[in-house]
Amino acid sequence: LSNISAESSNGSIENTGAGNVNFQSSRLVLNAQSIGAVNAVQTNTGLLAAQSSVGRISIIDRGFADTIGNLTTSKGGQAVSGINSSTDVSLVAENVRLDSSVRALTNVAISAGSHLAMIPGGNIVAGDTVSLEAGGDIYKTDVAVASISPNLVIDAGGRLVRLAVPLVVNSTNIAAQSRTDSLNLRNQGSTVVTNLTTLKGGNTVSGVNASANVVLDTAGNTSLLSNVTAGGTAQVTSTGNLSFVTGAVQAGSLANVTGADVIGSASSSLDIAAPQIVLSGNRVGSQATPIDTATQNLVGQASVGDFVVRNSATVLNVSGLSGVNG
Asked: What is the DSSP letter of 162?
């Protein structure tokens, strides 16, 4: 199939017939004021680049795989890098591979029927929310930042990790889940674990959860407004303070929780529940706000202050427990 370049510097590119494939080609580059603002433009292409100067971009690709890359328009000679919009981006495809950036001043919503992969050079930037949905895996093949936005919601049918490479992000409010496997997130800023709704499927994602294992690393403070839940092990690490607000850490086997100061919730609600708990920080809990746990095995350390835990289990095996005043 040939290459297609569609340009409309003073207007939009629209789909006037719902269900029709508008563009079918090996490579497709679109440049207009808006693209699919009323009805999503439908494509069947291998390599796609698109940009809008005024309105949104909405594209549904009907092929097996859609790679987002860099192309140049044939007439205007305009270089188009990935997908970028002056408002928001919506992309739906079976398999999505990001070789370049997807950028929007407001929201980016990507929904893949199977997998969403980001290789080196591929990332997502949004001024408000990044929403990622996939029936299979969502992953990046390197440790460069995959996503930057104030709000991040991820709903993966498969894994949120490949070959132990974490998905590195920079977001404040985060909700993410792996429905059938494991999740590995590393946030470069402070994290608020909360509940968010995906922009395409409308699914509410509660906190950070996985049917297998969860790893959540934060370079900053972590506030749990919702739960971190793992069917297997849950590892929650924060270089700053880790605060239980209205959320907890729950694990099927082991919960490993580390923060600068680990601060219990103001209520007596459960903070950590797992058969085995490893808990450490400069200070862990306080007499006013102990860390409320439910476990049979506890290993813990407070390196400079109190270690205060209130456990609900009737049998508690303690090892390696130490605190300066606790």
From this structure: B
Look at the block and give the residue holding tokens 């209130």: 310
Encoding tokens for residue 123? 């990332």
Lowest mean per-residue pLDDT among 36-40, 197-201, 242-246, 315-319: 315-319
pLDDT at 314: 67
Of 134, 145, 203, nearest in space to 171 by CA: 145
Q: Quick one: how far is CA 22 from the chain centroid? A: 31
Distance CA 27, CA 50 (A): 11
Task: 240-243: list long-range contacts, CB under 8 Å, 24+ apart.
Answer: 240/190, 242/281
Per-residue pLDDT of 231-289, as tens digits, reads: 999 999 999 999 999 999 999 999 999 999 999 998 889 999 999 999 999 999 999 99
What does DSSP assign to residue 165? B
Beta strands 83-85 and 41-52 are: parallel
Cα(258)–Cα(240) distance, integer angstroms: 9
Question: What is the C-alpha separation between 130 and 96, in angstroms, rounded?
Answer: 15
DSSP reduced 3-state for 16: coil
What the block records as the tokens of 300 is 């813990």
Contact between residue 31 and residue 6 where contact means Cβ atoms under 8 Å apart: yes
Q: Provide the pLDDT for residue 20.
A: 82
| Mean pLDDT calculated for residue range 91-106 | 98
- Local structure of 299: helix, strand or coil: strand
The length of the chain in residues reads 326
DSSP 216-282: EEESS-EEESS-EEESSEEEEEESS-EEESS--EEESSEEEEE-SEEE--SSS---EE-SEEEEEES
Dihedral sign from CA coordinates of 182, 119, 40, 125? positive
